[in-house]
Amino acid sequence: MVNKSRRNLLKAAALLPLAAACDGLVWGAEGSAAQASFALDMTGSGRRVDTSLASLSYETLELSDPTFFAADNHGLVRLFREMNPHGVLRIGGNTSDDTVWGGYKGKMPTYVPRRHGKLLQPHVLKPEGLEALAGFVRATGWKLVFGVNLRIGSPEMALDLAQTVQHLVGDQLLSIQIGNEANNYEHDYAEFDAAWVPYAKVLHAAGLPIAGPDTGANTDWVIEYAKRHARENVFLSRHYYREAAENGSIPDMLAGDPGFFGEVEQIMRVADQYALPFRISEGNSYYNGGRDGTSNVFASALWGADFMLALAQRGVAGMHFHGGTLLSVETSLGRVAKAPTGGDIVAQRDAQASRYSAIAGSRALGYQQRPLFHGITLAQRFAGAQMLPGQLDAGGANLTAYAAKQGDAVLVAMINKDAQRDASVALSGLPHGAKGELMRLRAPALDSRRDVSFAADGHVSADAGGACRIAVPKASAAWVRWA
Ligand code: BDP
Question: Does any ligand 1 atom lie closer than 6 A to the CB of residue 289?
Fold first, then answer.
């Protein structure tokens, strides 16, 4: 085995006189790999990657179980910290606009069911749910973005709730958001603005930090909102889902979404003008709860890593992957949760989570990473780095590549989303003679639900001219830290 791969390596090196074959991985079928190249431009400088890039979003309904977001729910606390010690937890979703605050002593506003909605009575958020959440936030070190109910039209109740959150969470409260995807129930931006302003006024007067508009897919709303309210806000936000779950598939997910990044660039121009961060405050692969066999398999890890880095490259501060329990997400959609039963512990934990959630499990069964989690941690390795421009020739494969400077080190990520074609990537422009620590994101197949890993895979070195060729097999990603 060793001799054969050495021979192959030497053969491969002979074919590539310009780039040292610096990686021990050798192709089974020689010559079939896409010949790609990625030339780093060390003189250029791009966006700084916010340390809170990897962030999460959960339904408000999750707080109805005060043992879930709780300081002593150690398994969940550990996974949050493992994902990102500097993350931001956003609480909201459809259920935030279907929730009344149980601690409110004023006159309860009247709940109006949604159009075609099956929920006839609102969810009631109890003080113990909030107290436990505050403990969870302290235990994880995460910041909190908390959504109040706009749909019900009670600024008084929202103020009381927001003040309670601030009192419990203190400095870790990053912002209050007013309403979730108000585009689903307000006729147009003007109507939304008219409903939003009375809330913003009272929250602002009470010294609470505000962010928004937390709209669905309405880039124009974000821009209009920024123009009117930038000064009152700590960040701008909107949501992102590629499509409805019914239309989802692995090939669709891996195809990319260039049109969306055009919208991100539009928002960033405005955000920069007002010096405000922009966060995707909720999002994932497919709305309507995610698609089984797509949102919860290895392909979602490649999608998630690529998506986050594409956002970071454009200056987006945070990507909040929506998730949580199957119960909370199905309820947010007016459906009854039906978790599959049986199987081993991995399958049982998996069944407890919404299909797109990055984390699965329950307090009783314990928690585990979903495939997406590993993709998120790959991208999060760019935290605090300064993106670098680079020239990519994907050689015909569905391949993306990103580079950044992190202190004295240079980071490179190569994501091969191609189901068929291995890629051999000739890197150039690296620090001369640099040593690289290599990690790989991989799984048995694109549709693997388990056995996904993002783990060390030895070392590579750049030649005296700063070149190195790295194999990135189909349906896998590589991350290298050069120093
Ligand atoms: C978003 C909602 C969230 C849903 C999600 C979905 O804010 O509550 O769970 O869609 O459809 O629009 O999966």
Answer: yes
